[in-house]
Amino acid sequence: MRENYLTVKGYGESEIVISKSRFLTYIERAETEEDAISFIERIKKMHHNATHNCSAYMIGEHDHIQKANDDGEPSGTAGVPMLEVLKKQGLKDTVVVVTRYFGGIKLGGGGLIRAYGKATTEGLLAAQVVERKLHHLMKITVDYTWLGKVENEIRGSSYTLEEIRYLEGVDIIVSVLKEEEEQFRNWVTEMTNGQANITFENAQFIEFVVDK
After folding, report:
1. CA dihedral for 6, 7, 12, 16, sign (positive or negative)
2. How much is the pTM?
3. pLDDT single digits (tens) 99-117
């Protein structure tokens, strides 16, 4: 299972005008190729009268699905530079469509490559890039006499207190980065003089917006 990776927060759209041509960018997270294809078809249907609806996507833990489509633009001038932007930013599970309404001025191969690359970059700013970090939810079970100390220590730490369950004993649920689990266990054990029972509950991704 992947641990930390970059993707887009969700749907985003943007528009730029270059030499009178309008470039509308649409971006979404897509965790399967079917999701990506469905998104592309939805945008193409919405802009069925556009000059071009070019697309690219990167999917899979090891980027094993990579597709680029020029949709009528000269080969390698639209979909490929769009895909290159996704690669350069290290994004996974991301699909992008750039819709072009031709403005009457030809851009040439280099101009098209720059235009589609810029349109993709602008779209990513609108969608927001996030880093998804794998966290483990850890359960600390202690006697009620330890609750105040443990709760205060956790709230003052870099860990995230998710929930407190008041049962026969107290269950304190804490979100911990996967790679920090051993360090966390040692910290709690030392804090409670070995009086805490520490168990793994489950794993979840937590997203952090990346400033570009």
Report:
1. positive
2. 0.86
3. 999 999 999 999 999 999 9
Which residues on adjacent β-strands are paired with residue 172?
140, 164
Q: What's the one-letter identity of residue 100?
A: R
Q: pLDDT tens, 23-32? A: 999 999 999 9
Q: Annotate the chain with three-state secondary structure.
A: CCCEEEEECCCEEEEEEECCEEEEEEEEECCCHHHHHHHHHHHHHHCCCCCEEEEEEEECCCCCEEEEECCCCCCCCCHHHHHHHHHHCCECCEEEEEEEECCCCCCHHHHHHHHHHHHHHHHHHHHCEEEEEEEEEEEEEECHHHHHHHHHHHHCCCCEEEEEEECCCEEEEEEEEHHHHHHHHHHHHHHCCCCCEEEEEEEEEEEEECCC
Q: Give the separation between CA 77 and CA 110, rounded to whole angstroms.
A: 8
Tokens in use for 56? 């690219």
Per-residue pLDDT reduced to its tens digit, 161-204: 999 999 999 999 999 999 999 999 999 999 999 999 999 999 99
Q: Is a pLDDT exceeding 70 seen at residue 1?
A: no
